[in-house]
Amino acid sequence: MDKRWTPTPLPAEDQSSGLSQKLNVSKVISDLLLQRGINDFESAKSFFRPNIGQLYSPFLMKGMDAAVRCLGMALEQQKKIMVYGDYDVDGTSAVALVYGFLKKYHNNIEFYIPDRYGEGYGVSHQGMSYAIDQGVDLLITLDCGIKAVETLKIATDAGIDVIICDHHFPGNELPIATAILNPKQKDCAYPFKELCGCGVGFKLLQGLVEKYNLEEEVLWAQLDLVAIATAADIVPIVDENRTLTALGLSVINSDPRPGIQALFEAAGNKKEIGVGDLVFTVAPRINAAGRIEHGKEAVKLLSRDEMDEATNLAKNLHVLNMERRQLDQEMAAEALEQILARGLGEKNTTVVYDPSWHKGVVGIVASRLTETYYRPTVVLCKSDDKITGSVRSVKGFDVHDALCECSDYLEQFGGHKYAAGLTMKADRLDAFSQKFEEVVSRKIPKELLIPEIEYDHELHLSQITGKFYNVLKQMAPFGPGNLAPLFLFKEVFVQGRSRILGGKHLKFNVTQSGTESIHFPCIAFGMAEKLQFIENQKPFQMLASIEENHWNGRVELQLVVKDIKPEF
């Protein structure tokens, strides 16, 4: 599929030159920093050196005073506390964080993760009944609860205090609770709105530590879980999220908890850990617990202090993840057949349904289909007597907003701009599909249906030096809002022999007009079909990032190619 290449606007020449001189960096680096809002020495210092002092006061968040007071009283009076979270990475990491921290000071505590298949997403009736039966005095919800008006009323009617820690958009009606912590709620003055659910839970603990003079070092040691949740939940890695992620990665690389160490050992990862490793190695295995077995297995792993137990739990999640991969590959193939048979590829949306599909992997399949057809996509399966599923969007289109216009056909929905979940009655599927197509067709600009790649700067191979890359590396952690810099290389040629790896990846070396003595290795994932094109001896242009390649004890810089086009 052809892609649009869009350059990020470059800053003014005088501004870039000035910053380049102040920081003693190349003009390309100063341009990259200015594109990210870094415009002076102090902001550059904060950007390159994330530290605890950059975290905002938790008491800037609406409801924090009441939440900390309520939690502190429960600890002092030895009340029964239940920590409740969703079954995905954000939810289970948040539960492991809050449960693990509070358990160091309080024994009368337990955690609860709903069963994906028996209870579904969020705060469940079954969970509230369990809390009442167990005599819970305080319920802390993490990564859920902001829309659980009816189910949380069961708890509050039973005399249970409720603290909600959530980051999803609130509905028109808020649940009754002792305190609600959500930077997206109205009148919340918290300066950063994009924390994940685990991040909000961390702010609650930060407030508790400050109010009751608890050991700060015990809290900072939990930042590994915040980094994992932040990376996995695809929230912007900017501002406070970037600080939390950087500090959390430092914990992971210097003193990993047994569960995290065991996960990487099970996956065979031995190099320094970055955001990509959290997204592609840790997150799928944690998610596999809730998708295939039960989310509580992930919390157990992340809460273990003993390496032997953690190793066994990690091996189990590794096996579950392999099972999950097999399932989503089979489902994706079946969905693609359905799309071709029904001519859905001609529409502006993709809605596919099979009652036999596995509920635990519909979100992954929706992401795969979105990559293939680049349309807002809904993948549905049967759950009891209802139809349920996941929604994924394309860059720039708010699918949650589109679902709001389809709410008459839905029993329940919720999520973010680019990802959501929904439930409907079986007889509403056709009407929903038609309405979703109508809403998206009306609202989406046609250019958003063509994949876009934004690149930061044009670069010449001669500009890639060890010093240049070392500065680039310090711009990490990368993620949404601070993606790894992507460069345009013009008039490049293949040097030597190219080859296909694993049947689908392309490995080759490039040089550039005028500097044939300089060449760099390239890897182009999933671009085996480009082999003949790049070997036709004609110049081409490509978009690529710069990374270190670790192989057989050697480390070399390589270009990771995102797209290739003819040189015009």
Automatic annotation (TrEMBL):
InterPro entries: DDH_dom, DHH_sf, DHHA1_dom, RecJ, RecJ_OB, SSDNA_exonuclease_RecJ. One of its GO terms (molecular function) is 5'-3' exonuclease activity. Residues 350-441 form the DHHA1 domain. Residues 455-563 form the RecJ OB domain. One of its GO terms (biological process) is DNA repair. It holds the Pfam family DHHA1. Residues 80-230 form the DDH domain. Keywords: Exonuclease, Hydrolase, Nuclease. Belongs to the RecJ family. This is Single-stranded-DNA-specific exonuclease RecJ. It comes from Luteibaculum oceani. The gene is recJ.
